[in-house]
Design a protein that fits this description.
alpha/beta; 12 strands; elongated
Amino acid sequence: MNIPTAAILVIGDEILSGKVEDANARLLIVELRELGVALRRILVVPDEIADVAAAVRELSARFDHVFTSGGVGPTHDDVTIVGIAAAFDKPVIRHPELERRLKTYFGDNADESKLRMADVPENAELLEMPDWRWPVLVCRNVYILPGVPELFRKKFLAMRERFRVEPFFTHAVYTLEEEFDIAEALREVADANPAVAIGSYPNFATPDYKVKVTLESKDSDALEITVTALMGKLDSGRIVRTE
């Protein structure tokens, strides 16, 4: 089964220095999972054109969707547009439609710093949505989003349904067995059921259970078969609950 993949590129010295806590990747982790998209990479880079370009070039080639966060404002450290243009060997141009909208919105106050928001990588698309004043820029498979969490959230949620595919089906088993006691059983079940991803997570915070085992697949039938196989190998008397 071909599962769409995604990567998140967070851009900003403020994230790497700890001055600002990243909330945008956290949002996408939840949203992409709910949409059925497999998130495969989260990368944070500084406000350096070469770093942005290298990261975009690699992620765009490896994953179906790339979402960038940050670095799209009017100041000197907003280098995302230039970096993405460099990644695809394109010049930065002033988009006439964006320029027109900015001049209409700002009127006589539309100075060069504001008009810079109309600069885009050549051949970038404007993703328009109802009730949006400003579109999302899309360059190939790269969706260019702002770093401000409120704006990032608003823009992603407005376009989220374009990414929806078949959902992930999940099941969890909580057991009082130790992780090393069930490791071989997990390996055998995982090897026999490659369509299902199995994870094992020990718990040291509470006495309620020792290990949480998760099973996940796009194939609900395969998941059911795998859950049955796993339950047959675990000590039923030590299973706390399943869900």
